[in-house]
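Hello Y.,

Per our agreement to keep a running log of every chain we model this quarter, I'm adding this entry. I've kept the format consistent with earlier entries: sequence first, then predicted structure.
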Amino acid sequence: MLGTLGAGASLRGVETAAATATPERDADGTALTTTVATQNLGLGADFLSIARDDSDAPIPERVGDLYDTVRASDPRARMTAIADELAGLSPTVLGVQEAAVVRRGPRSGGDPTDPDAGTVVFDFLAILRDALADRDVPYRLVAATTNTDLELPARVDGERIDVRLTDRDAVLVRADADVAVESTAGATYDASLTLPVGGDRTVEIERGYARADLRIEGASATILNTHLASGLADVRTAQARELAATVESLSGPLVVLGDLNDEPSRTGETPTPDGSDSADAGAYGLLTEGLTDAPRAAGATGGTCCRPSALRPPDEDGLSQRIDHVLVRGLRAPSAERFAVDPIEGASDGSGLFPSDHAGVRVGLTSAPATPSTSTTDTPDPRTTDDATTDAEPEASTTATSTPGFGPLSALVAVVSLGVASIRRLGGD
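Predicted structure for the entry above:
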C-alpha cells in the first residue's frame, strides 16, 4: 500500500511499478474490483480574467489574450503527457473535468449564450483519447455533461473574430475492460451564478454532473463525475448539497470523482481555496457525511492543486490544496496515488510545462462489506436526462449542464463583484 505523499513528492517510481502491473491489479499485487482515476485537464489560462475590472483593455483584447495564452500552453503536448501517464496506470474508469473545446469563427455580434463559431482549434478530450488509442490503451466515452458554452468577441493576430469556449466533464471506460454500461445521464444543479455580460444581458453559469451506471466484472457500481463551483463557497456548498441528495437516493456501490474545489481542512491539511476554516459546513464535509474519502483512507494525502494558470515552471506555489477527490460508498481503497505531478518536456517552444494545473488521482478499489442503505429505491433525479447511447461521442450542446468556472478564486470574485457598467464594452473593439 502506498504511504502518505508529500505535496512535492515525485511519483516516477510509483508510476513505473504501476505500469508493470496487470491492468486489474494494484502495484502491490492486491486483486482489485476496479481502478478509477480523476483528472482536471486544465484550460491553460485564467478564463475569468476577461471580466476583471483592473484592466483598461476592451473585452475583445482580453479575450484575445486568453486565446493566445491557451495556445501557448500547448494543449496537444499536455494532453499527450497525461495520456502517457494514464496508459501506464490503466484505470478502468476515468473522470475528467475541464475537457474544453476551443473554437473560432467570424465576428457575428450575436448573443454570447447562443454561440455559432464552428472551427475547432483544440478539443482537449479528443486529443486525449486519440493519444491513448495511439498507446494501445483506448477509452470509450460513456457519459458527458456540457458546462459553460460561451462565445465572445476577440482580436487575435490583428483579426476580429469570435472565440467560443465549451467546457465539459466526462466519464470514460477503458475499452478492453470487462465493463457493461447499463445507463448514463447528465444533470444540472439548481445552484448557479448569474453574471452580467453587458447592457441588460446576463449569463447563467451552471454546473452539474455526469452519471454512468456500470457493471464492472459483473458487479454493479454508479459513477458520478463533477466539477463544483470555485470561488464562492455558498454556491459550491449548495451544489454539493444537491449532489449529496442524489447520492442518498441511489443504492449500491458508488464512486464520486471530480474537482470539488474544497478539501478536508479539519484534518490538518491546508485550508480550502476560498479561505473557509471548516470543511464541515462546506462541500467536502457534506459529501463525506455519507461517502469515504478513498485516498485519505489509503494514506495518500498529497496536494492536487493548483499550478499557475500559465503552467510554466518554476512552480512557486506547489500542489498545496487537495481538492481533487475520489469518494466512495460500499467500496474500500487499498491504495491511492497522484499522477501528472512533474513538468513535461516537448512543448512547442522547447521548454518544460506542467500537464495541468491539477495533479490526477488514481485509486484502487475492492469490495467492502455491505452497509445499510439510506434508501431502498433508486430514485431518479428529476432533472436527470437518461442517455441510452453509451459509446457515441456526446454532442457538446446536447447534454443538460452549463458550468462556471475556469480560473482561480480571485478571478471569480472579481467577476461576481463586477458592475454592469464595467463590462458594457463587451461588443467593443
